[in-house]
Amino acid sequence: MSEAFVSDRGAKRWTTGHPWIYRSDVREHPDAPGIVAVRDGRGRFLGRALCSPRSEIRLRLLERRDVPIDAAWWRERLTSCRVRRDGIDATAWRAVHAEGDGLPALVVDRYDRWLVVQLLSAGLETQRGLIVDALRDVFEPEGILFRHDVPTRRLEGLDDGVELAYGSVPEQVEVREGAIRWYAAPWTGQKTGAFLDQRENRLAAGALVPSGGTALDCFSYHGSFALHLAQRASHVTALDVSGEALARGAEHAALNGFSQIDFVTGDAFDVLPAWGKAGRRFDVVVVDPPAFAKSKANVPAALRGYHEVNRRAMRLLAPGGWLVSASCSFHVRRPEFLAMLAGAAADSGRRLTLHAVLGQGVDHPEVITIPETGYLKGAILRAD
Question: How far apart are CA 293 and CA 313, in angstroms?
C-alpha cells in the first residue's frame, strides 16, 4: 500500500469532519493515482484516501479504519447507500451522493432498472472495475452508463465522454415520481439524465395548489414542477426561455394525460413584469432558475438576479398564494438566499410569511461539516 504524509493542518481537516486535504498540506505522496494510507508528520495512521496527484484536492478520505479497500468494502458501502434510500416513492433517485454518502467523487443515479455513474477523481478512476462489480451485485441493474462528459474529469487529467460500462442502457427511460411520470435521457440529458435533487420539493409544491387553482412554473425546463402542480390545478403556465425544453415538457404532459398546462416560451425577467402590469395572478408560483453564480465572484450579481425575479413573482401571487423559490448555486449560501427573499418581499409591497425552508431530498444527503454536499436551498412563502 502506497503512503502519503500530511501537515498538521491537513490532518486537522479530517478530525473536524471534512474529507478533503489540499495539495498545499500534502508533504509526500505517490506519483500515480490510487488509494494511499495517510499518515501525519509523526507517522501516525489517519486513514485511507483517494490520491489524485494532479488535483488541488490531493487526498479524499475513504476510510478511517486500517482495513483494505477491496471488493467486500465496496459492496458494504454501496449496500449502506441503498438501504438509506428505502421507502423513496419514485423509480428515479440518486443512489450515491459522493461525499454526502462517504464515497467522495462517486455519483450514481438510478433510472428505473439502469444506473448512470460518474467517477470524478483520478484516484477513484483506479477503482473502476471494483465499483462496477459492486454496483452490479448491490443494485442488480440491467445496464450501467458512465457519464464522464463533465469538466471535473479534465481537471483531474482524465478523459471525458460517455461510455457504456455494462449491459445496455436505453436512450430514453420512463420514470415515476409519486404519481407523476416523465422521461429521463441517460445518454444526453442534464447532469446524468435529469434533475433529481428537487423531487421532494416538487411533491411539496404540488400539494400547495388549491383544488381548481392556478399555478405558474418559471424556468420550467422540461416541466417537472408544472406536472406536479397540474395534479390539482385547473390551469398551469410553464414558462421557459427554451422552446425545445418546453417541447419535452409537452411530451411529459401528454404522458400524464394533462391538457391544462400552457407552455410559454419567454424570458422570466421580461414576461413577469408584463404579466404583473396585466393583472395576472396565480395561487402558486414556482421560481427555480438555473445556477446564477458559477463562482464566488458571481455572487453579488446572482443575488441581484434572484432578488429581481422573486420580487416580480411575489407581485403575481393571489391573496393567500404560495411562492416556492429555490437556488442551486452552491456559492449562494442559505442565509444569503433567505436574506435575498426578505429584501425582495420588502420591495414587492407584499407581506409574506415563511412556511418552510427547503433543501435537497434524502437521496442527496447534506453533511453539515461538508458544505460542498449542500448546494440546493429554497423556501416556501405565503402571501397575505
Answer: 20
Cα four-point dihedral sign 360, 366, 368, 371: negative
Of the residues 17, 36, 63, the one at which a domain ends: 63
| 3 state DSSP class of 365 | coil
pLDDT, tens digit (0-9, with 9 covering 90-100), for 243-294: 999 999 999 999 999 999 999 999 999 999 999 999 999 999 999 999 999 8
Helices 268-277 & 299-315, crossing angle to 10 degrees?
Answer: 30
Give the separation between CA 314 and CA 312, rounded to whole angstroms: 5
Rounded to whole angstroms, how far apart are CA atoms 36 and 121?
A: 14
**Residue of 33, 40, 29, 32 lying closest to 3 (CA atoms):** 29
Q: Is 218 a catalytic residue?
A: no
Q: Are residues 45 and 155 in the same domain?
A: no
Same domain, 20 and 111: no
Q: Give the distance from CA 62 to its chain's centroid.
A: 22
The one catalytic residue in 51, 81, 218, 328 is: 328
Residue 217 gets the label, from left (phi > 0), alpha (psi -120 to 50) or beta, of beta
* CATH classification of the domain holding 129: 3.30.750.80
Q: What is the pLDDT of residues 213-250, one digit of tens each?
A: 999 999 999 999 999 999 999 999 999 999 999 999 99
Q: Is 222 exposed, middle or buried (0-12, 13-18, 19+ CB in 10 A)?
A: buried
